[in-house]
Amino acid sequence: MKLKRFKEKTIHFLFFLAGISAIIILLGIFSMLLFNGIKTFKDVSILNFFFSTVWNPSAYHEPSYGILSMLVSTFMVILGSMVIAVPLGIGTAVYITEVAGTRTQEILKPFIEILAAIPSVVIGFLGIIFVGPLIAGIFNLSNGLNAVNGSILLAVMSLPTIISISEDAIRAVPKEYKEASYALGANRWTTLIRVIIPAAISGIVAAIMLGTGRALGETMTVLMVTGNAPAMPHSFFDSIRTMTATIAIELGEVPYGTTHYYAIFAVGTILFLMSLSVNIIAELVTAKYRTQRT
Amino acid sequence: MKLKRFEEIIGFTILGFSAIIVILILGTIIVNIISYGSNAISWEFISDFPKDGMTKGGILPTIMGTIFVTIITTLFSIPIGVSAAIYLSEYAKEGMLTRIIRAAIRNLAGVPSIVYGLFGVAIFVQGLGFGSSVLSSGLTLGLLTLPWIIATSEEALKTVPHSYREGSLALGATKWQSIRSNVLPYALPGILTGSILGLSRAAGETAPILFTGVVFFVPGLPDSVFDQFMAMPYHLYILSTQHHAIEQVRSLAYGTALVLITLILIMNFTAIFIRFKLRKKFQM
Amino acid sequence: MFYNFRIIIGALILPAILSTIISCSKNKGDNHSIQIKGSDTEVNLVQRLSEVYMNKYPTVSISVTGGGSGTGIAALINKQTDLANSSRPMKSAEIDQAKAKGVEPVPIIFALDGLAVITHESLSVNSLNINEVAGIFKGNIKNWKSVGGPDLEISMYGRQSNSGTFVYFRDTVLKGDYAPTVRRMNGTAQIVEAVRKDKAAIGYVGIGYVLIDEGKVISEIKIQKLAKDADSQPVSPRESENVKSGAYPLSRPLFQYTNGIPAGEILEFVQFELSREGQELIENEGYYPITDKHMNHNRSLGIIK
Q1: What's the domain count of chain A?
Q2: Would you identify the CATH topology of the domain C33-112+253-301?
Q3: pLDDT at position B47, please?
Q4: Residue A283: which domain range?
């Protein structure tokens, strides 16, 4: 009997360990990034790091580690992707939940799941050979390796997230709301615009935030199609280089333990904090909407 | 009133259009890959090694590499992930700790894949000295899929009716006995569905393996977890950006994309099939 | 029942045990494999050489990875590769880093490259001098009409900073930093691909990337003749004599670095590369065999007789 109790306790403890693994990993990632990243500032001033537009670790003269250009590039490509993905994603989510019949729903849902499953490198590949030339042709540019191409591909990558989470939010709106609106004589469209979407808005905002997070963290697609010029971009037709692409390009070339190595981890730290903030905003919005409901 | 009706029609049409565009995007991707990729596919393509500077021959080592690394990922993430889910749904009392754990899981799911790559380099490649290897890559991908597996497994465990647990506890079974014999079997299909979906994502990832073990070319297949390996996503990346004869290997690149997507879709359909079966079982 | 229990517990602690065992047995036991990493300019060439070599000696296994010269040199310093391909000499800072970690880099020269400056075939410019090329990539010359071409804004394609070609071109041509508006392509082939589609393009690539069989240039690409300065005759890298004699301003040796004088299988592979057969393969791939001067350099290292 004692042995049995001991066994139960051991099992309980093991499950507990597994249970807290998520916390350990999250803290582990953060402390590893910070531990390595912070060493950058032995050689680089914090001011320069954040406000210099020149990122040139292997310069002819003096190396320079300023992340402003890549921050702007990252924001630009996210903005571009959201301009495309938000209306499309929310529109599709509303269509699936409120307009489509059950059969159409049954067909559409797996489609969205398949889209979510397509590897980013495949989308990047099509970006090079399909979207790039298309953009160059439409806008009469000499090439299609620019922020527009990156934005389009990131929109494709974040669509499934936006669609499925907004869908959940819209589905969670109580039936009574709809019925009350109909009873007052409103038609389906008015009910949708005036009642259902406002009621689901916090969930939709959370969906947009998580979609943003997806676009923020995406590496391969932007690496393959944006041209990666480390200049400060002036328009969407400029070539850009995001934070993720910078890490992917340069991590392989650095000897461990050099300023350049640490600077890459510093970029990683900023990226991590940004994605964390996006997630936390999404969490807060969702929490608010949960409390509203109850 | 007419105007309202008009507005409704226009509005729904726009919604319909956005759904159509999304379908078109997916359609374009799939049709493009299949129509160009199918020309490259042959028995030789999937069963042979690359030849003549990768301009001919097949992609066998990349397929095997992807499968091998996914197996390591599975061995790492499923035991830990499912255990974590069991802890959350069966053992833990709802409170501060579970709230923190859940927040950590959701935030982990949002960490960019390249950051997992950085972590993999610092911890597995250097810290633990696994070097650039299948193991380092597999573990890095394991961390990446962990939050997904915990979340979906917990969902699955939650669908198990309370009466299942209470019944066996009433008969004098210990908590663990009741979980093992009554809860887990019931939740298994759900856990499987979630895990397979998570692993299919891992199989298609490139950024986390870029610096933890994947290489341009290795002769032969990896025969230990410490070997470097070739993988389909990276192979496609190389063929489309770095190979010396991009044009010449375009059809090989399409072929690789097709095989990769096929593998991932097979995993997805398996998962969807299991879920479908499961739903039927519940309806009975 | 107990059996079941053990399976699950086993599955639980398996990763833990696995990682402990693994961390205890760090060193890789596989002696028959040679790891080569680095330059994208060299990757296809070396892969071809190793393919032929492995067909001759099936017991040897050689893995070749690109990633750029910087990547290869970093790997050599971090002791993660046997041979580092590099299209540029190691910098003194890198040699210091290597020595600090107990690595003795040995530079072997095994091929010659004429770095080609390429444009779209339809461009009306046929030759440039080095100052003009430098001006373009530094961002001082922005339009083709400044160098006798059409009124077209120049779009520049270069490599990423991990590329030896990036560094070589910067140090020998620009003698300064690139304009940040130069697109940084992932690989040499991507430059070729982009230039073929872009009528306003200029890019730099290893000659092997634009020559196909029998010295023909691939379609839609023009290889610019280069002059050392405004007064010199422009010279084409397509004639091997120009590259070997150094008349072409961008002829450069391609390196392979080892940690210490190589021995055993690594040495045998290097000797194969330097043999007549190896050098012929190099020529077939669009690069140039090394000159007597370079052969003497290798001899002085003691790797060949």
Answers
A1: 1
A2: D-Maltodextrin-Binding Protein; domain 2 (3.40.190)
A3: 85
A4: 51-293
The total of other beta-carbon atoms located within 10 Å of residue A24's CB is 11
Residues C243, C168: Cα–Cα separation, whole Å:
16
Single-letter residue type at B100: I
- The DSSP code sequence of B212-248 is TTB-SB-SS---STTS-B--HHHHHHHHHHT-TTTTT
Residue A113 sits in a domain of what CATH number? 1.10.3720.10
Instruction: Assess if residue A45 is contained within a domain.
Output: no
DSSP A62: S
**Which residues of chain C does CATH 3.40.190.10 include?**
33-112+253-301, 113-251
Q: Which CATH architecture has domain C113-251?
A: 3-Layer(aba) Sandwich (3.40)
Query: What string of H, E and C letters represents the secondary structure of C97-136?
Result: HHHHCCCCEEEEEEEEEEEEEEEECCCCCCEEEHHHHHHH
Q: Each residue of C229-240: b (16+ CB within 10 Å) or e?
A: eeeeeebbbbeb
- Is the minimum CB–CB distance between A134 and chain C shorter than 8 Å? no
C76 interface with A at CB cutoff 8 Å? no
Q: What stretch of H or E contains C257?
A: strand C251-259
Pairwise CA distance, residues B38 & B258, whole Å: 7
B246/C44 Cβ within 8 A: no
Q: Do C161 and A254 touch (CB under 8 A)?
A: no
ipTM of the complex model: 0.91
Cβ separation B118–A128 shorter than 8 A = no
Least confident of A82-91, B71-80, C184-193, C196-205: C184-193
* C contact chains, 3+ CB pairs < 8 A: A, B
Q: What is the pLDDT of residues A226-263, one digit of tens each?
A: 988 888 999 999 899 999 999 998 887 777 888 899 99
Q: Which fold has domain B65-146+155-227+247-279?
A: MetI-like fold (1.10.3720)
Instruction: Flag whether A254 is in a domain.
Output: yes
Which of A1, A25, A121 best probes binding to B when mutated, by most B CB atoms within 10 angstroms? A121
Neighboring chain A residues of C198 at a CB cutoff of 8 Å: 142-143
Q: Is residue A201 part of a domain?
A: yes
User: Across the interface, do C22 and B130 touch by the CB < 8 Å criterion?
Assistant: yes
Contacting residues of A for C186, CB less than 8 Å apart? 223-224, 228, 249
Cα–Cα distance, B48 to A39 (Å, whole number): 47
Cβ neighbors of C201 (< 8 A, separation 6 or more) are: A142, A143, C119, C120, C154, C155, C156, C157, C194, C195
- Pair of tokens at residue C27: 């060193």
Task: Fill in the amino acid letter for A19.
Answer: G
pLDDT tens, B29-80? 999 999 999 988 888 888 888 877 677 788 999 999 999 999 999 999 999 9
Beta bridge partners of A240: A227
pLDDT at A14: 92
For residue C300, the one-letter residue type is S
How far is Cα A216 from Cα A282, in angstroms, rounded to an integer?
A: 14
Distance from C-alpha of A26 to C-alpha of A24, rounded to nearest angstrom = 6
Domain boundaries, chain B: 65-146+155-227+247-279
Residues of B in contact with A91 (CB under 8 A): 14-15, 17-19
